[in-house]
C-alpha cells in the first residue's frame, strides 16, 4: 500500500472551520509577547539590581517609590499580564498535546485560564491600589516614605 502526500498548494478537502484561526493568533502572541517580556524583564532587573544600591536597596520604601509613579505601575502590570497569558497559553499547548481525553482537556484548559485570569485581576489590583501610606508612622518610616506620605 502506498501513501501519496497531497500537494501543499492544493485546497483542503475538509471544510475549514469558520471564524478566526485561534491557534495562529496564539502562535503569533507567543512570539511577540516573548520579545516584549525579554525587554520588560531585563529593564526590571536593571532598575532593581544594578541602579542605585543594587539588591541591598530593595525594601518597602524602594517599591513604594516605584509604585508612586504611573510609569512603573504600567511597566509591572504589562509584565504581569504578558507573562501570565504567555505562560497559560504555553500550558494550554502542552495540555492539548498530551491530554487525550476530551473532557479532561477542556477542564484543564478552563482551569488554566481561570487561574491566569484570577492572578491577573489580583495582581492588577495590588499594583494600582498599592498605598505606601497605609499605617504610616513618621517615627519609624524611612526618608523616602516620609517624603511620599508626609502632609
Automatic annotation (TrEMBL):
Report if keyword Iron is assigned.
yes
* Record-linked InterPro entries: SQR/QFR_C/D, SuccDH_FuR_B_TM-su
Q: Which CDD domains match?
A: SQR_TypeA_SdhD_like
Keyword list (alphabetical) reads: Heme, Iron, Membrane, Metal-binding, Transmembrane, Transmembrane helix
Q: Where in the cell is it found?
A: Membrane
**Pfam families in the record, alphabetically?**
Sdh_cyt
Q: What is this protein called?
A: Succinate dehydrogenase hydrophobic membrane anchor subunit
Show the GO MF annotations.
metal ion binding
**Transmembrane residues, as ranges?**
26-51, 71-95, 107-130
Q: Does the keyword Glycoprotein apply?
A: no
Q: Which GO terms describe its cellular component?
A: membrane
Amino acid at each position: 500500500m502506498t501513501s501519496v502526500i497531497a500537494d501543499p498548494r492544493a485546497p483542503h478537502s475538509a471544510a475549514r472551520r469558520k471564524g478566526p484561526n485561534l491557534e495562529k493568533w496564539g502562535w503569533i502572541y507567543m512570539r511577540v509577547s516573548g520579545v516584549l517580556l525579554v525587554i520588560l524583564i531585563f529593564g526590571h532587573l536593571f532598575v532593581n539590581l544594578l541602579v542605585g544600591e543594587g539588591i541591598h536597596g530593595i525594601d518597602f520604601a524602594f517599591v513604594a517609590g516605584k509604585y508612586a509613579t504611573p510609569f512603573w505601575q504600567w511597566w509591572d502590570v504589562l509584565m504581569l499580564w504578558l507573562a501570565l497569558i504567555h505562560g497559560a497559553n504555553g500550558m494550554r499547548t502542552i495540555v492539548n498535546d498530551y491530554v487525550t481525553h476530551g473532557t479532561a482537556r477542556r477542564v484543564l484548559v478552563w482551569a488554566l485560564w481561570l487561574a491566569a485570569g484570577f492572578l491577573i485581576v489580583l495582581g492588577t489590583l495590588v499594583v494600582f491600589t498599592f498605598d505606601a501610606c497605609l499605617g504610616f508612622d513618621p517615627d519609624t518610616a524611612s526618608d523616602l516614605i516620609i517624603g511620599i506620605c508626609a502632609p
